[in-house]
Write a structure and sequence with these properties.
- With 362 residues, the chain is α/β, with parallel strands linked by helices.
- It has 14 helices and 10 strands.
- β4, α5 and β5 form a beta-alpha-beta unit.
- The radius of gyration is 21 Å and the shape is globular.
- It binds ligand F0G.
Length: 362
């Protein structure tokens, strides 16, 4: 595809690439940080381990702020500009705030983000601050943060850019469209981590839209996974005190719980809980066996796939796509917490060879 812009080979950003399917008007600014068009790569090691024939990994950590949130945020912020907003506001476990802050900076809007104190990964907080957002860390969890920003937004002081803003869901459909465009049809299964359950809702909407347009004929099964300590969608009930080291999905009262449950029913999909240990094992497998570094929440999709594949609950021939929602660099503390202390050693060949476990001929 060419754009006519020297040096730019594909339409820049999602509003240009999929504008005909998004609710743009002549007055919507074509905001872009080059989001979308993320790699869809084969997961060969996962195929070997599970016996599934075709597994693909959608690397959403390659988006400009390192997570899938950029897909919906670019549209939500562009529409906020179109509607004359001066500021945007959101609650976040980290990635939404990083994305909102970046797009607000790009568009010349102020951003206010409300996060649970002590439960946002370092990389995400660093991003929000660097992009110039006002950050409020509350003594409370994500659910309480969301309740506060909903009330604040209702006063008209700022435009809400959590995914209850419908433009967020509209923009996030592009993930589903890219997958269908790349594979020439829908996969049999799509595996996602669920937190607030916006992404699974958006993917399901996107697949149905493509079906209605005749671009695909068969719909995928939606497979959603949550951490055991924060499994409000899987258990279909509110969790007062959600717990998980995958802080991105540490949510007890997901805004789109009902929509996610409907997506499972309509698609013939499945949900499951995964333990902290299963998340950790999938996280390490992805990095060490596939070379793909994701944040812990993203590893929940692969942990879930391992679980269902082991239970022989999947058709081997159907293509599987795991949505790897966020970059591993977002949460360096999690990675470092899994390794032993790294002692400093002498700067000698002998000491380094011994530390590296290399047999050096003498
Ligand atoms: N993976 C990552 C890396 C996330 O940041 C999130 C959500 C999810 C998965 C779950 O997606 O909420 O649409 O079901 N993060 C939100 C945030 C809540 O504030 O950044 P979901």
């Amino acid at each position: 595809m060419t754009t006519g812009i020297p040096g730019v080979s594909a339409p820049e950003g999602l509003l240009r690439a999929y504008g005909d399917l998004l609710p743009l008007t002549g007055r919507t600014p074509l905001l872009s940080l080059g989001e979308g068009h993320t790699p869809l790569i084969r997961g060969h090691a996962i195929e070997q381990r599970t016996g599934l024939r075709r597994v693909f990994l959608k690397l959403e950590g390659c988006n400009p702020t390192g997570s899938f949130k950029d897909r919906g945020m670019v549209l939500a912020v562009a529409k906020a500009v179109e509607e004359g907003a001066r500021a945007v506001i959101c609650a976040s476990t980290g990635n939404t705030s990083a994305s909102a802050a970046a797009y607000a900076a790009r568009a010349g809007l102020r951003a206010l983000v409300v996060v649970p104190d002590g439960y946002v990964a370092a990389g995400k907080l660093a991003q929000a601050l660097a992009y110039g957002a006002r950050v409020a860390a509350i003594r409370g969890n994500f659910d309480q943060a969301l309740a506060v920003v909903r009330e604040l937004a209702a006063t008209g002081a700022a435009t809400l850019v959590n995914h209850i803003n419908p433009y967020r869901i509209d923009g996030q459909q592009t993930g589903a469209w890219e997958i269908c465009d790349a594979l020439g049809g829908a996969p049999a299964y799509v595996c996602l981590p669920m937190g607030n359950a916006g992404n699974i809702t958006a993917y399901w909407k996107g697949f149905r839209r493509y079906r209605d347009l005749g671009r695909i004929t068969v719909l995928p099964r939606m497979m959603g996974f949550q951490a055991e300590g924060a499994a409000a969608v899987v258990l279909d009930r509110m969790i007062e005190q959600p717990t998980t080291a995958a802080t991105a999905i540490r949510i007890g009262n997901p805004a789109s719980r009902a929509a996610a449950i409907a997506a499972r029913a309509e698609s013939g999909g499945q949900f499951a809980m995964v333990s902290e240990e299963e998340i950790r094992a999938a996280y390490q497998f992805l990095a060490a066996q596939e070379g793909v570094f994701v944040e812990p929440a993203s590893a929940a999709s692969v942990a879930g796939l391992f679980k269902l594949a082991a239970a022989e609950g999947l058709k081997r021939d159907g293509a599987v796509v795991c949505i790897l929602t966020g970059n591993g660099l977002k949460d360096p503390e999690y990675a470092l917490s899994l390794m032993n202390e790294l002692p400093a050693i002498p700067a000698t060949v002998g000491a380094v060879a011994a530390a590296a476990g290399l047999d050096v001929p003498t």
